[in-house]
C-alpha cells in the first residue's frame, strides 16, 4: 500500500506543483496542496470525504479531536462546523489530500441496488475517520489517472466515484451513511432538518 501511495503522491505533486485548492476535471473532486502549517480555524464542511495522502491534518468535530495521517480518510455526512488545521509539513514534504463531495442520490441508488437496509445496532456517526482499504486506495489511483484527460474524466469519472461510494458503503462507515440516507430513521430526520436550516439561512 505504501508504494501505491508514494506513486500517487508523486503523480499529483507533479501535476499540482504549487500550493492551492484545485477543482479537477472530475466534478466534485478536489486536490489540496499546502507547504505550510496552518493554525486550526473554524470551517464549515459540506458532506464529503477527505483522503489524506501526504502530511497530517487536525480536525476537531464536536468534542472529538483527531490527527489524520496518510492513508486515513475523514467522512462527514452532514454539513457541520469543524475546526481544522495542517500540522508537521514542509515544502519538501507538503500536505496533499483529495476531497470528494458526497452525492446522496448516487449513494442511495447504490444502497438500493445492493439491498442494504438501515440496521439498529447502535448510534450512527455524522463524522468519522478510518484507514483506507487496499480496494479504496486502488479506486483513488484509477480516479486520479483520469484527471488530466477530459474525455476519461467525463466518461470514467462518475463510474470511479460510484466505486468509491460503494467502498464506503461496504466499509466500516457504511452503517452510518445508510442510516443518514434512509427514510424513517432518526438520522434521516436530522439530516433533513440540517438541510432545512441551510435553506432558511440562504433565503
Quick overview of this protein structure:
With 203 residues, the chain is of the alpha+beta class.
Overall average pLDDT: 81
| Percent of residues in helices | 25-40%
Largest sheet: 6 strands, antiparallel
- Name the poorly predicted regions: 185-203
Global shape: globular
Query: What is the distance, rounded to the nearest whole angstrom, between the alpha carbons of the first and last residues?
Result: 47 Å
Sheet/helix structural class: alpha+beta
The main sheet orders its strands as 1-2-9-4-7-10
* Computed Rg: 17 Å
Structure description:
With 203 residues, this protein is of the alpha+beta class. 39% of the residues lie in helices and 30% in strands. It is built from six helices and ten strands; from the N terminus they run αβββββββββαβαααα. The strands form two sheets. Strands 1-2-9-4-7-10 form a six-stranded antiparallel beta sheet. α2 packs across α4 and α3 packs antiparallel against α4. The chain is globular, with a radius of gyration of 17 Å. The C terminus is likely disordered.
List keywords for this structure.
disordered C terminus; 203 residues; 6 helices; 10 strands; globular; alpha+beta; 6-stranded antiparallel β-sheet
